[in-house]
Design goal:
mainly alpha; Arc Repressor Mutant, subunit A; Serine Threonine Protein Phosphatase 5, Tetratricopeptide repeat; elongated; disordered N terminus
Length: 431
Amino acid sequence: MDAVVDVLGRVRASVFAVDGGGEVADAADGYLNLAIGFLGRLAPDDGDTGTLVNLGVDVGWNVGEVDYGDTGVFELVRPMHHVVTYFRAAQDARAGPLRGKSDLRVGFEAGFHHSVDNLNPDSPLASKLRRLLVFYERKLTTDQARLLSIVALFRSPVAEEPVVRLARGLFGKRRKAPLRDDATLAGDLRLLHLRGVLTREPIVDGQGYACHPILRDHFRILLLSERSSTARRAADLIKGRDPNEPPKSVQEIELVLVAIELLLGAGEFLAADELFRARLDNGRVFLNIPAIAEGVRCASGFVRDESLRQQCEKNLGERRLRFYLNDVGVFFSIGGRYEVAGTFLTEADAINRKTHDSVNRSLGLLNESELSVSVGRLAEATAIATESLDLALEHRVAHVLVAAYSERALAQTLSGQLGAAVYDFALANAV
């Protein structure tokens, strides 16, 4: 609970940093103080957030509907507004008040990961959101709706040129409602921005277009549900050519990440896996850049929940399921999300046990040992590394042996067993 309150406090501080003590900050301050106050009074394992939901959403809609121009404050207020909005969605779905830590977690996950279609279709909130979305949709021309749908494919701002190019690739050959020329399409993008439907935000080479998260969910689904082949075609257009040199920044892999996300959303696991292997060096790119948060988001797209894991195993096999579970665990561990990391690594280890894959089990145990080192459980880390080493000695795979000796030596060094550590380091050098 303290972590939740801390996040709200930092959002509030960010608003004041941008707007000082102005009108926007006053509105945001009242809203965020309301949220912090109710969350802060919840007992550790119980508490009714119904009052927060009912009051917070009403205040949130008022704050969220105001356009504050280029101050950037709207972007800072909006995340909290959506979290509270989706608290109410989660409450509707559960047919009762939200209570305690577990339901707060559900509310936050719903706020950041669930689309409007995940809401209870009979709930008042779902009806309100859908009416708003249909209102937006009917105000747009055919080409404007197409452009908004393309912007909605991207989670970060996208420049004008790729939006127009994708529109040409996806809709350029339509005889019914043909696409207009590029200059007109560029003008439509500017018009959508002037009307407040799209925002303009800084990117590496200037300014890019982005849209409200709820609009993004709606118009992305609108585009991808039009034809079964649209996701594959969009992914092919987005990913571009394979570069001659390894990527050195997140910007260089951003389009590939979008393409993989689209393919997974359409159930094209094999194509997504091929792209992950070829363009992201089977995940090594995330470590080399480094881009750990992007690695979590991309790899977890294959295994984030039970439904995805079943699809992953069905389409790619048990070994690739184990690979993605392990990858997500490693990325979470590097990013400091140790508890979540342990869950994924344990699931990967269970598959290695089931398939009697001793070599990969040895490597997976080294990841678990590294995790134990990170949280200070050095005796546990040494024991896990020893188990990994025992498996490695059975197969005598050189790089696994070196890694196992070195990992155990690290745990021994940190726990003060310097003689044993020196001996293991010497054995690693001798392999």
